[in-house]
Design brief:
The protein has about 260 residues and is of the alpha/beta class. Helices cover about 35% and strands about 30% of the residues. The chain has eight helices and 15 strands.
């Protein structure tokens, strides 16, 4: 049986981004673009006139951002956030977003988000339950230091607290967060993480390693003036410490 097309409004301050979203939505099928807007002010008018099922919403826009727009709406459609900034993911889900797409996203990823939107619209109670389980007791992020981040698990993105991370590393230009349960790829570079993580807890101990010192067990000498940082995990993971960073780390650990 043919399904009723989803009526979608696109809100993004970049005309090229709106054009690309229209094209991908057309390729996805079973979708009607009911309208589009380049600002929160314009979006309020379009949403009032069209009453869509789904809002494809950019977060960062001049003036009012996407969150301010949602806060001003009496009737909220289902929402898929679209942004280039990974750090907004927690708040996006707190706003009951159906999904969160990172630019540039592929058509397949958009199709999956649209299917999730259909399920949410069919069963709003289930959406609320899923979001409650996902967020738990998370508070709105207000601190400067990064407290949570999204990681990829298959085709899904889940929210991970940084205190669960034993260390961050890189392999073949992809950055991962290593936890007790395994490695999860993140949408940050190590340089970006070094600037965003709490320096009282995390340290760049090697060009390719940022360690969570809350999980440090011992600092052991290696070869040719190098050191190895041993963690307290079950595997007793040992991380390389470069000679250039060894002195500072030894001072921090009192070694």
């Amino acid at each position: 049986m043919e399904r009723r097309p989803l009526r979608v409004v696109i809100v993004d301050d970049e005309p090229l981004a709106r054009a690309r979203a229209r094209r991908l939505l057309a390729e996805a099928g079973e979708v009607v673009v009911a309208g589009e807007a380049g600002s929160a002010e314009e979006a309020r008018r379009v949403l009032h006139e069209t009453a869509p099922d789904l809002l494809l919403l950019d977060i960062q826009m001049p003036g009012e951002d996407g969150f301010a727009l949602l806060a001003s709406l009496e009737r909220r459609p289902a929402v898929i956030f679209v942004t280039a900034y990974d750090q907004y993911a927690v708040r996006a889900f707190e706003e009951n977003a159906v999904d969160y797409l990172l630019k540039p996203f592929r058509r397949e990823r958009l199709v999956a988000a649209l299917e999730r939107a259909r399920r949410a619209l069919a069963d709003p109670a289930e959406l609320s339950r899923r979001l409650e389980e996902l967020l738990g007791s998370l508070a709105r992020p207000g601190a400067t230091a990064l407290e949570r981040l999204t990681v990829r698990v298959g085709n899904r993105q889940i929210i991970l607290r940084v205190d669960e991370v034993l260390w961050f590393g890189a392999e073949e230009k992809l950055v991962f967060a290593a936890t007790a349960s395994g490695r999860h790829y993140v949408n940050f570079t190590l340089d970006q993480l070094e600037k965003r993580l709490d320096p009282r807890r995390f340290a760049r101990i090697h060009r390719g390693v940022i360690a969570n010192l809350d999980h440090a067990a011992a600092l052991r000498p290696g070869f040719a003036g190098t050191w190895r940082l041993q963690l307290r995990d079950e595997k007793r993971t040992e991380l390389p410490v470069s000679r250039a960073r060894a002195r500072a780390l030894r001072e921090r650990l009192g070694a």
